[in-house]
Amino acid sequence: MPSPPRTHLNPERTSKHILNAQVSIRAPCCRAWFDCAQCHAEQRPDHRLRRTTEMTMLCKKCRKAFRKDLSDPEQWEESDEFCPWCDNKYVLEAKIPQAVIGVEGEDLRKDNRMIKDERMRQPARTDLDDAPRPPQMELTPEELAELEELAG
Ligand SMILES: [Zn+2]
Ligand SMILES: [Zn+2]
Ligand SMILES: [Zn+2]
């Protein structure tokens, strides 16, 4: 069992749902960084994850942020599955702890992509479960400033 990847930004908040999460995603509702929609549901039980057509993500490998526009799924290309800064592929087959899946004999390697995940079909629906595949976007200066603050 590989140990979960760590992030400097939120070491205590590494997703226990997706062990190999390559990016953190910023919630549009509370502006908190989280690794998956389920993490948001657990960390912020007071509200639902707000839907958005623009997702801000932070690459865990190079710790740089980028943005994805979800409004036009037609524009998603294979290159969009990679971090625009370091080419780290962040759309992966999610490594999910056995206990969370709870279905014996299920092939964990089947299409369990990070933003289109089996577990997302559970009641706590969020904007990540059926998110269309977005094209790449630049960060606004405000967001960059915010991230520099975060990174310390
Ligand atoms: Zn999680
Ligand atoms: Zn929130
Ligand atoms: Zn990167």
Describe the structure.
Residues 140-152 have a biased composition (Acidic residues). Pfam families: zf-CHY. This is CHY-type domain-containing protein. The chain is an alpha+beta fold and 152 residues long. It has one domain (11-146). It has three helices and five strands. The chain has helices spanning 37-43, 98-101, 141-151; strands at 23-26, 33-34, 54-59, 65-69, 136-137. A five-stranded antiparallel beta sheet has the order 2-1-3-4-5. The N and C termini lie far apart (32 Å). Mean pLDDT is 73; it is low at 4-13, 99-112 and 120-126. The chain binds zinc ion (3 copies).
Helix content: 10-25%
Number of domains: 1
**Structural shape:** globular
Give the C-alpha Rg: 15 Å
Catalogue the unreliable spans.
Answer: 4-13, 99-112, 120-126
SSE pattern: EEHEEHEH
Helical region count?
3
Major β-sheet annotation:
5 strands, antiparallel
Bound molecules: zinc ion
In the sheet with the most strands, the strands line up as 2-1-3-4-5
Mean pLDDT: 73
Oligomer: single chain
Q: Bin the strand percentage.
A: 5-15%
Strand segment count: 5
Distance between the termini: 32 Å
Helix vs. strand class: alpha+beta
